[in-house]
Amino acid sequence: MSPTPPRRLRLGMPKRMFSQVLLMQVAIAAGVAVLATGLFLAPLSEQLDDQAMRRALAIAQTTSAQPRLAEELKSTPASADGPVQAEAERIRKASGAEYVVVMDVHGTRWSHTNPAEIGGHVSTDPRSALSGREVMEIDNGTLGRSARGKVPLRDTDGRIVGAVSVGIEYDSVRARLIHAIPGLFAYAGGALAVGALAAYLISRRVQRQTRDLAFSDIAGLLAEREAMLHGIREGVVALDRDGRIRLLNDEARRLLGIGDEAVGQPLDTALGEGRTTDVLAGTVTGTDLLTVRGQRVLVANRMPTDDGGAVATLRDRTELEQLGRELDSTRGLIDALRAQDHEHANRMHTLLGLLELEMYDDAVEFVGEVVGDHRATAEQVTEKIHDPLLAALLVGKATVAAERGVALWISDATLFPDRLIDPRGLVTIVGNLVDNALDAVAGTLHARVEVELRAEGRTAVLRVRDTGPGIPAEQRELIFTDGWSTKKPPAHRKRGIGLSLVRRLAERQGGSARVSEADGGGAEFTIVLPEALAEPGLAPEPTTGLVLKSAATTVNEESR
């Protein structure tokens, strides 16, 4: 077998976010420190060179300004013990320069640090200074590399008789630069230490906020969150601390009827004023709060978050609400049938007694009266209300009302044609208002509910009055709010939807719904529906599947 090759050690980024953030920030701080040091050192060398050259030039200018130097240059020979050499050496030692060279117009040295060089020609070109110009430069001479300053030497008449060249040893300039580097590195190291400490504190804060998750874990969580939010069948709305919409999933967009443009907007701007906005904003508190958005019945729950915002969930209860209403309709049908069965049994017992007593004429008269009463009740309704759905509804409600000991009256002012454009909508409105009125007067003396339906052109006007306790003035707007009710909710669903739907149905047709005090006490609901009726002579579109099998059956299918 061939030997297994050794595994190579691979260095990579640490997986923990804390370590990654700390490493990146320390690297950035170190890079900034190195860059700042380099940017500082680059001009520092040039600045030191410039300072050395200017210093050399200043010494040269001071030397050339000596009043006797030019005269001694003209009157004495170039020698190591001459007055020019003595004066130049005095100035060199006093200024700390490397050399002070005085030359004549031919470039012959009259002074030098090395006396052996006196009388020789200077090693650098003196023509610029002898022509009257001042020179600053870095150059190489007999004493090595130096920073130089050269100026012309003039006599009392202003004529150039020579030049003065002063040099500053370049090693001293470099020594100053090198001497400055440790201090600079100390500052850079201090800045790096402060940056590392700040990086550590920031990394610790990020670690706490991200629960020490790796970047890959956060990316995975985000991907899972997106899949979950857009896959669940509940609407999710996330709000920030200022009440602006931060996130909407697909179901929330569908239920609320808004799009991506709502993200970033305040709730009242995106949704408008109403109970839905109040529930999502937390103005209305509680669990499983009911609200109506458009034609949808929603159940909302709101949970605050640690950053001051909130997350709200929305469930569509429209279908469940419809099932609940169908259950109520079925219950109403059962009550109506039970009432009819009970009344029918009593009448059959009466008829049987009359026959057993051989009171045949009385029996015939009793049967006629019973049939006449039923016919009269149905005829009274159909004479005033020509729409079959509404007529069937009220006949059925009259049976239920009689069973509960309540008189259900059709007002003498009622006269309603069969020209409804949306009969189901009006049936829902009438059914809800009559049911609420029956509940309000239940258990009271002389309980009575009166229904008035009139057509004013193409406008339908509905009034439902009862003799109940009435509604206080301060609650007359509140009762139309989603979820508001004074009655105990049934087991299968919550109350507080009926009157809200009544107002919404009315407003959807451009109408209104309001409540006031009825004459003699009780409540009076008034519904106005403009454009609810077709033009006279034009038959409305037929309602599919409406067969008047029985009054109670049709009524209770649409009563809620």
From TrEMBL:
Q: Where in the cell is it found?
A: Cell membrane
Q: Which organism is it from?
A: Streptomyces liliifuscus
Reactions performed catalytically: ATP + protein L-histidine = ADP + protein N-phospho-L-histidine
Q: Give the residue spans that cross the bilayer.
A: 21-44, 184-202
What biological processes does GO assign it? Answer: regulation of DNA-templated transcription
Q: Which GO terms describe its cellular component?
A: plasma membrane
Q: Name one Pfam family in it.
A: HATPase_c
One GO term in the molecular function aspect is:
ATP binding
Domain PAS intervals = 221-263
Q: What PANTHER family is this protein classified in?
A: SENSOR HISTIDINE KINASE DCUS, TWO-COMPONENT HISTIDINE KINASE
Q: What is this protein called?
A: histidine kinase
| Record EC number | 2.7.13.3
The keyword Magnesium appears for this protein? no
Membrane topology label: Multi-pass membrane protein
Boundaries of every Histidine kinase domain copy: 422-533
Q: Which UniProt keywords apply?
A: ATP-binding, Cell membrane, Kinase, Membrane, Nucleotide-binding, Phosphoprotein, Transferase, Transmembrane, Transmembrane helix, Two-component regulatory system
